[in-house]
Amino acid sequence: MDISRQLKLASTTGKLLYGQRQALDACKTGEAKCIILAANCPQEFIDSLRAGHPEVTMHRTTLVNRDLGVASGKPFSISTITVLDAGESELVTLSSNLE
Q1: DSSP letters of 71-89?
Q2: Mind listing the domains of the chain with CATH numbers?
Q3: What is the pLDDT of residue 49?
């Protein structure tokens, strides 16, 4: 699956949230369907998110935060993308790849 293409599709047809605080808030309210993490997202954040919300699928990409921002069509670095509605993309079919 081409993550960049799927992110662009989801940003136009679905609903995504950007950033660690919004990811935490979406997990707390139960809205998060999937969380996409940059390769250089802080491990402490990932560990605390997994411990608090094991039901949410978390997928770490090979893209660093700057590349994840570009792939999302944003002019800034993004370490965490939360999928609330995948739209026409296949992002919710991603499996968790964290050990």
Answers
A1: HTT-SS--SEEEEEE-TTS
A2: 3-87 (3.30.1330.30)
A3: 93
